[in-house]
Amino acid sequence: MTQAVLDARTARVLPWLVAIAFFMQTLDGTILNTALPAMARDLAEDPLRMQGVVIAYMLTVALLIPASGWVADRFGTRPVFFSAIVLFTLGSLLCAMSTSFNQLVMSRVVQAVGGALMLPVGRLVILRAYPRSEFVRVMTFIALPGMVGPLMGPTLGGWLVQYASWHWIFLINLPVGLIGCIAAFRFMPDLKSAERMRFDTVGFLLFGGAMVLITIALEGLGEMQMPHARVMLLVAIGGACLAAYWLRAGHIDKPLFSPTLFHTRSFAVGIFGNLFARLGSGALPFLLPLLLQVALGYSPSQAGMTMIPLALGAMFIKPLAKPLIDRLGYRRILIGNTLLLGSLIASLATIDGQTSTVLLLLHLSLIGMVNSMQFTAMNTVTLVGLSNQNASSGNSLLSVVVQLSMSLGVASAGALLGGFTVPGADGTALLEAFHLTFLCIGAMSMLAASLFFQLDSKQAMAARHIDTE
User: Fold this and answer.
1) Which of 54, 169, 198, 316 has the fewest CB atoms within 10 Å, i.e. the most exposed one?
2) pLDDT given for residue 293 in this prediction
3) How far apart (Å, rounded) are the C-alpha atoms in residues 143 and 318?
4) In the predicted model, what is the mean pLDDT of the chain?
């Protein structure tokens, strides 16, 4: 596949189009949790069972992301991206119309089919349509609107549930989806592989099955409270499926994810770095609201407002990402930034009832800035060295790893917090459990810096100058 030649107008609009898809997904992911209790009351369900609404979406995405690259290569990026937005929007409408728990779960599955294709295919188009020298700049721009979702989600969700109804958290996707459909039809380039490739069905079943089993196990360890024996059994079966996949992929033509991807050193380091460095980032959205409300006595609205500096800090630093990477290179940025991020997470162990609000907000804004730089640098160093031939497969694998690592972060945080919490603990004892958890999560995040030492300094500095062949 050759690089697309974009006219000036399409080159300006395309990043906005992918950003709309990113915004829809991030808003949906952060707005739903605040509405689950109201949804449970309306549907006459146990609030604890409502977690299935979230898990159904996550499992479907985990299963289908590995196929996103092949689907885009086979049918073309324009029809696939357009269909993804349609499915996501249709799923949102079906969710709003649901009158039972089972209907809502099935509607979330439809929504997830679109979600599994939207962002991976959008990022794949950006990777193929722009020269490598522009990749960091365009991806930075795309990430900015996506950060508005976490900024708006908790507050908007609470407001809609309180003053309207939970149905509106899905209905607000409809006008955004309509705009996205029109823009996709007009401006999305239709890129597809010139070579007719056979789909690796066996590999898809092995890899997808492994992702689903491991995801269920992680959620069982964290929120579903499965017996540990069942969790270990799921992990063992999932690990066996994953091992079988890679053993098989090494000796067949056109596997779903080829082991040759890891011959690109920056990709290999980026994939493993994403897997482990995101542990702290995945744990923060779970741990911080609990710390503020359970240990420090904040109200839900106060806790939601306190989280805003995380998103504002991330938005502030994004425009500076490319100049900093150009000046320092991926290796220096990722090593230093990973150590700084882990230190900032660990230093949340100093937060207590005596901490001033101003100091807490500054602390969280710093975490938001460093976290944002981490995501930008990790994602771009993972993809920037890939050829167009490997871009589709590598992009899909990155999306899977991101999904898995965020789940692992939440599960690890839940397990650590549960282990450190003495039954019946409150006050100082409960706060100490949070402090120990933050120290452990921060240390785990810092260890990922050892992976980024494996980047070749010359290659890491030169990667941003690579152009698409």
Assistant:
1) 198
2) 73
3) 8
4) 81
User: Hey, is 279 helix, strand or coil?
Assistant: helix
Half-sphere exposure of residue 308: CA atoms within 13 angstroms, side-chain side: 10
Phi-psi region of 23 (alpha: psi -120 to 50; beta: other; left: phi over 0): alpha
Let me know: does 385 contact 262? Beta carbons within 8 Å: no
Among the listed residues 317, 270, 334, 405, the one whose alpha carbon sits nearest the alpha carbon of residue 140 = 317
Token pair for residue 384? 């920037």
User: Considering the chain, what percentage of its residues have pLDDT values greater than 90?
Assistant: 19
Per-residue tokens: 326: 């150009």
246 within 8 A of 252, measured Cβ to Cβ: no
All residues at 6 or more sequence positions from 172 whose CB lies less than 8 Å from its CB, including other chains: 27, 156, 160
Choose among 37, 251, 62, 55: nearest CA to 157.
37
Distance CA 220, CA 52 (A): 12
Buried b (16+ CB within 10 A) or exposed e, 324-346: bbeebbbbbbbbebbbbbbebbb
Torsion of CA 432, 413, 55, 172, to 10 degrees: 70
Residues 6 or more apart whose CB falls under 8 angstroms from that of 108 comprise: 53, 56, 57, 60, 91, 95
Question: Do 21 and 146 form a contact (C-beta atoms < 8 A)?
Answer: no
pLDDT digits over 259-300, tens only?
888 888 888 898 999 888 888 887 887 788 778 877 888 776
Q: Catalogue the long-range contacts made by 249-253 (C-beta closer than 8 Å, 24 or more residues apart).
A: 249/200, 249/203, 252/200, 252/203
By CB atoms closer than 10 A (0-12, 13-18, 19+), residue 199 is middle
- Give the C-alpha separation, 226 to 43, whole Å: 25
DSSP string, 344-372: HHHGGGG--TTS-HHHHHHHHHHHHHHHH
Query: What burial letters (b/e) apply to 401-437, b meaning 16+ CB within 10 Å?
Result: bbbbbbbbbbbbbbbbbeebbeeeeeeeebbbbbbbb
51 burial level (CB within 10 Å; 0-12, 13-18, 19+)? middle
Report the distance separating Cα 305 and Cα 298, nearest Å.
10
CB atoms inside a 10 Å sphere around CB 356? 8
d(CA 353, CA 334): 33
Q: Are 254 and 200 in contact (CB under 8 A)?
A: yes
Distance in angstroms (rounded) separating the CA atoms of residues 452 and 273: 7
Contacts of 39 (CB under 8 A, 6+ apart): 45, 50, 53, 104, 166
At 28-75, the pLDDT tens digits run: 776 776 677 778 878 887 665 666 787 778 778 878 887 887 888 888
Q: What is d(CA 18, CA 126) in angstroms, rounded to the nearest whole number?
A: 8
